[in-house]
Amino acid sequence: MSTHNGSVPGSAEPSSQEHTRRTLLVIGGAEDKRRRTLVLKRFVELAGGREARIVVIPTASSMAEEAFDVYQSVFGRLRSREVSLVNPQTRLETSEPSLAEAIDNATGVFVTGGNQLKLGQLIVGTPLHEAITRAYHRGAVISGTSAGASVLSQFMISMGEEGVAPRQRVSQLSAGLGLLPGVILDQHFGQRTRYARLLSLVAASPSLLGVGIDEDTAAEIVDERSMTVVGSGAVYVVDARAAVSDAHEARHAAPLMVSGAVVHSLPYGAHFDLGAAQLLDFQEMHPEVAVVTSPTDAHDTANAAAALRR
Amino acid sequence: MSTHNGSVPGSAEPSSQEHTRRTLLVIGGAEDKRRRTLVLKRFVELAGGREARIVVIPTASSMAEEAFDVYQSVFGRLRSREVSLVNPQTRLETSEPSLAEAIDNATGVFVTGGNQLKLGQLIVGTPLHEAITRAYHRGAVISGTSAGASVLSQFMISMGEEGVAPRQRVSQLSAGLGLLPGVILDQHFGQRTRYARLLSLVAASPSLLGVGIDEDTAAEIVDERSMTVVGSGAVYVVDARAAVSDAHEARHAAPLMVSGAVVHSLPYGAHFDLGAAQLLDFQEMHPEVAVVTSPTDAHDTANAAAALRR
Predict the structure, then answer these.
(1) In chain A, positions 250-279, which contact chain B (CB-CB < 8 Å)?
(2) Sign, Cα dihedral of B10, B12, B18, B19
(3) Which helix (H) or strand (E) holds B271?
(4) Alpha carbon distances (Å) from B48 to A173, A251, B139
């Protein structure tokens, strides 16, 4: 574990007005870090802009120090006031008071990509988890990308296979941070063809709404209900609440019967009600954003770190 | 053009009772030809079993003669009475009376895979097309696999890109045989990740129902309405009739906004009403079928032809 400050000039506290809403910025991975940085810019804005005090948690990454350097650099360029590192490597370390203190002082918490099982095992149910929940409820924006996105919901997809054909018991859930109840978050959605795994999970648990997020795209979710899409891809909602399915009896790996699921493909500018599972409005946006795709989060981190060194 | 008989012992005419219904057997490509042959067995059964007089149209295939040999062999093993070849290579040839005569004499017509644009250009709107329509209305089963499946509907997908993220104007339609109005048929659905292309097309034309079929799987459609699924994969229905979309104004290649489409994943034994777009019933089937997948139809034909020679 270590905490580390990378101060950026800035001043004043964020106004209390900005912090009455609970805000998540759930990112589908491989967000642009070098050009338009549309998604990360939004994160810094939500964290208070020049007053932002950001904690980065790169614990999921196999290259945690590099991942921190990359985000510290980006958030610095975006003029956030302070960027700190919280990087526990064992479950025991998450009890160290300095970690909770760092989170308690933050206006934004950013969880990087990597291995989401590691996040689940190290952080969920620990004092660090409690600190993140506290921060969320006092209005700090909580954001995660890729694995860091998945862990934000109550039920976290821990694995599954690619494709459009839902099959029985090839996807699995485990416990996440629970900041977004009633939703399963998935990431790298279009790029890794995760439609089938999300559909098969919500078919088995129709009370949960499936939300899949493309790379370089984020779902900005306020008060666990109002969702706005930001970025170059789309956010997909899969709603099986009215569907009929044989998910309770189909054999292992058999094609699943799922009839009557409702789907939504929501690009930048869509505004969606997660409670009613309905589109509220849509203002088409035409940003000239870079579409960034990487085979793995480690690859993405390595690329960004190499660019940083140049 | 050539016609060619491959007689199989058999007798009696199919009873008129069996032929009062209009029947399509729409196959998603790469159907098992060597082991359980579940889908092709169903075709022969629908064509009258031992009384079946089948016409194979391999015009779409780059290996038409080999494709014919393969299906002649399979349909022979399945004890159909007669297997004939209709293989025009120009649009002019489709006017030759012997082709229409062969179709007029058939209890089943089978259109192979290959290049569906060739099928569209050579056959649609010709006397051969008229003969197929006549055969369909007098109760002969009309079947096609892969490209041969796509051409059966009124609006035929002629191209499109893979993925789950629907995008503007990356898929195209052209005119098919029109035996199934109101539906867009797609094939190799799960194997080639064709969810996005089908969704983007029905988003632009919400009056049409999208029906995507997996490999080694068929949609058996009676009177253009009652659909039953046969085979080792699934049939997918995408219904955008109640969806909201920006398909009328989104820029080329932009992520499409499609909110509220209803989807159905229907394995073997599902029975579905294409008019109401509703599941009627589902009897789970557990056939031990071979799952056959091939990168291309030509590859599939070559494999089957090689097996035939052995």
Answers:
(1) 250-251, 254-268, 270, 272, 278-279
(2) positive
(3) strand B270-273
(4) 49, 33, 11
Does residue A198 have a pLDDT over 90?
yes
| B215 included as an active-site residue | yes
CB of B10 within 8 Å of a chain A CB? The answer is no
| Tens-digit pLDDT profile for residues A39-61 | 999 999 999 999 999 999 999 99
The domain total for chain A is 1
Question: What are residue A266's phi and psi, to 5 degrees?
Answer: -125, 105
Query: Is A108 in contact with A136 (CB distance < 8 Å)?
Result: no
Under 8 Å between Cβ of A52 and A81: yes
Query: Which pLDDT belongs to residue A291?
Result: 53
Kind of pairing, strands A270-273 and A226-231?
antiparallel
User: Would the CB atoms of B259 and A265 count as touching at under 8 Å?
Assistant: yes
For A193, nearest residue in chain B (alpha carbons): B164
Burial of B121 from C-beta contacts in 10 A (0-12 / 13-18 / 19+): middle
- SS3 per residue for chain A: CCCCEEECCCCCCCCHHHHCCCEEEEECCCCCCCCCCHHHHHHHHHCCHHHCEEEEECCCCCCHHHHHHHHHHHHHHCCCCEEEECCCCCCHHHHCHHHHHHHHCCCEEEECCCCHHHHHHHHCCCHHHHHHHHHHHCCCEEEEECHHHHCCEEEEEEECCCCCCCECCCCEEEECCCCEEEEEEECCCCCCCCHHHHHHHHHHCCCCEEEEECCCEEEEEECCCEEEEEECCEEEEEECCCCEECCCCCCCCCECCEEEEEEEEEECCEEEECCCCEEEEECCCCCCCCCCCCCCHHHHHHHHHHHHHC
Task: Please name every residue paired with B53 in a beta bridge, in sequence order, or none if there are none.
Answer: B82
Q: State the CATH number of the domain containing residue B139.
A: 3.40.50.880
- The whole-angstrom distance between residue B303's C-alpha and the CA centroid of its chain comes to 20
Please give the average per-residue pLDDT across B62-89, as a whole number: 97
In A, minimum Cα distance to B269 occurs at: A257
Task: Find tokens 């900041």 and name the residue.
Answer: A179
Strand ranges for B127-188 from DSSP E: 141-145, 153-159, 172-175, 180-186
Q: Residue A239 in contact with residue B243, Cβ under 8 Å?
A: no
Contact A123, A158 (CB under 8 A): no
The interface predicted TM-score (ipTM) is 0.84
Residue pLDDT, tens place only, B193-210: 999 999 999 999 999 999
pLDDT tens, A240-289?
999 999 998 888 888 999 999 999 999 999 999 999 999 999 987 765 54
Q: What is the CA radius of gyration of chain A?
A: 18
Give the residue numbers spanning the domain of A281.
5-309
Q: Nearest CB to B233: which of A165, A196, A199?
A: A165
